[in-house]
Amino acid sequence: MDEKLELVRNNLVHYQQWEDVRVSPASFQWEGENIQLIIGKPSNSEREECVLPVEYSQYQESLLTTNLIDATFTNLVSEEFERIVLAIIGDDGTVVFYYITRGTSTI
Amino acid sequence: MSCIDIEIGPSGHVGHVHSLEAARRLRTSHGVVGVLSGTLPAAAQQNCFLYLPLVLPHEEIAWLLRRCDDGDGDGKEKVRLVRRQVTENGSQLQEVSRKQAVEQARRDEKNIRFHMTYDNNSGITHSKELDPQYLRECQCTRCEVYTALKEGDASRVVAAGSRFGAQYTLYPGDPLRVHATMLVLPAVKNNQPWDVRALLSIARLATTVRKTVLLPSTSDTKTRATSDDTSIDRRQSHDTQNHVRFYRLEWTGFG
Amino acid sequence: MAKGHTARLRYKYPLPIHPIDDLPDLIPQNPLSWAYWTYCYLTKVNYLKFRIPVEIIGQKYVHILVRNSYHMQYLWENGFFGTGQFSRSEPTWKNRTLERLNIGLTNTRINTLSNNTIPETLQLEEITKRRRMLRIEFKQQREKLEKQLLQLRKNNGSIEEEKELLEKEREMLRDFKAKQSLIDIEHSFNNNERLEDFELIDTNGNIIELEALELLPVEAIFLTFSLPVLNISVQELCSRLVPKPVQNIKYDDIQLLIRKYIVYHHYRSRGWCVRSGIKFGCEYLLYKRGPPFQHAEFCVLVLDAEESQDYTWYSSIARVIGGARKSLVLCYVHNELPEKNILQLWKSGNFTELFSKFNVGEIVYKRWVPGKNRD
């Protein structure tokens, strides 16, 4: 399990107090980095969420593009999930969580 | 048949509506609100409450023209483009066709240079000339995003968003009656790396003002921008597909 | 009162450099006193006697970690360096987990430096969590009311009905504000041990220290280049931060890192406590003394001297920062040398020369509204 998965997984289990947290086995490579999801249930909600860990650096360009998000939804996320949680790992170690929904042509 | 006249300014970037009746109809039947830019005669010494002319951005004009051509809405509306002609007796507004407007815009572009100027620490002023092609590409993108937003719900009002640092603010109805629900950011290309810091900050801001953030993303194919039309001229919705996709971004509330 | 006093004592030194202020008293007539005093003077040093080891993980995106609890405390108390991976700022995860699982010393916080137990105060994370839950509840109720209002307006309801709904909303707001100000200080001693918590406990029944203190790259550079605190050389650190073989490094790879470091160093050397500003969408936050004392007053954005963005970029950040009641500082970094010289200095490891060839200027950017800012 690579470092970013481990960090986000520990954060979810021991800081955010999520339940039933597990790393989903499916993964793919994107520009040299491993893209993999963590699935779990937040403490105050009934539904499970998929979490995608992504690194963010003060001095390097980000890996995040719309193409990456689309690829994640197509390859890793099952149909029932409308949104995923983006876990952005800052270079100070803190992780911030944002929901991102599947791309649609109209809203 | 009633008529809405829109005066096209130089380069066709914005249009002005001078008639009160036209402004009212735009607001009620088309969900086009624009920005008032003139002095209010009844209270001339303040600038909180403004009056006509109503300023419409390029993408709104393009959408209106297409909508009235395609016979959407009531079918009773006709939108005309007019241009100010200056004569010895004063100035008057004359109708122009779409094609003429586009040609005039091209001619103006050659005479008008868009510059960005700034000083560096040593006091030298640099100026970077903006390529008209780049501007046209931005306009194309904005037109596509605007059309896609209006397509979802024609009574939705797509207003200016610079107050929140976004491109547009979306209202589900008339801004005087309802609160805005969404902020639309400037579109990114599908393969463009995100400015994560900027996205996070505006997503946080949106949480405090109770709105959701929409990120439009356009495809990275170059087929659109090389064509030499502005969107006023093109009958867009039929021959080019909508390349725009929207992603909703919001803070989860934890972390 | 007491909190301010203990905070002053605990965070006495703004940087990991301690002036020699604990020499013994000197009695001028007594030669023995002189001997003792001179001995103390000559043997004391003002820097750390040991170097703090760091662990660097990751290839392209690196994380710089300090794992030892004592070192974590030291770095936090001497300049507020780093952030706990599972905490908001200070690494308090272990104490909070101890409390939560009711293991070991309950109701007291262990101060590992001096081995004193301090009376319990509600930890920052707990307060934040409770405030957030209250806010979520309030928001859900408010959304319900707003939907009702919207329906009413769409169906052209009467003014009285609208007034009723608005009055309900106002009452809810009053209740919410009252609840916020009395967040309970008592603890709920619920024994919420979960299955996952068992992986935290080792064979002796103690909690393992899962949390590490993570340092920003610029903080790590500061603690090796400017002050000898970390147990790693500047060259090695920089080669990990820009993980390419030296011949292949281009200017674009290093320019951002250099610029961010210059600004960090600039403010640290003028006495500010500089911390990560990612929560507010900026690069750094400037504190006068530190996070436990007052909120940060300034948010810093780092820009190149030649750089210019369009109006919406500035206004969006200014809006966020203004909403948090801070001032935005635009910090421009100007390099005196051409790009290839800078690259050359980096490759040869001559960091002192490299970092001294930059100028920093700053502008405070504040929104001015003619109607409101008249006084």
Would you mind describing this structure in some detail?
The complex is a heterotrimer of chains A (107), B (255) and C (375). Chain A has one domain (3-101): Trna Endonuclease, Chain: A, domain 1 (3-Layer(aba) Sandwich), CATH 3.40.1350.10. With 107 residues, chain A is an alpha+beta fold. Chain A has a 5-stranded mixed sheet with strand order 1-2-3-4-5, with helices on both faces. The longest helix of chain A is centred in the N-terminal third of the chain and has 13 residues, at 3-15. Chain A is built from 2 helices and 5 strands. Chain B folds into 2 domains: 1-112; 132-255, Trna Endonuclease, Chain: A, domain 1, CATH 3.40.1350. Chain B has a 6-stranded mixed sheet. In chain B, α2 packs across α4 (132-152). In chain B, 35% of the residues are buried. Chain C is an alpha+beta fold. Chain C has 12 helices and 11 strands. Chain C has helices spanning 2-10, 31-43, 69-77, 93-101, 124-154, 159-181, 217-226, 234-241, 251-268, 311-323, 339-348, 351-355, and strands at residues 55-57, 63-66, 83-84, 108-110, 117-119, 213-215, 273-276, 284-287, 298-304, 327-335, 358-365. In chain C, α5 packs antiparallel against α6 (159-181), α7 (217-226) runs antiparallel to α8 (234-241) and α7 (217-226) crosses α9 (251-268). Chain C is globular and about 90 Å long. The interface between A and B is medium-sized, with 31 and 32 residues. β5 of chain A pairs antiparallel with β14 (245-251) of chain B, so a sheet runs across the interface.
Give a quick set of tags describing it.
heterotrimer, A: 107 residues, alpha+beta, Trna Endonuclease, Chain: A, domain 1, 5-stranded mixed β-sheet, 2 helices, 5 strands, 21% helix, B: 255 residues, 2 domains, 6-stranded mixed β-sheet, 7 helices, 14 strands, globular
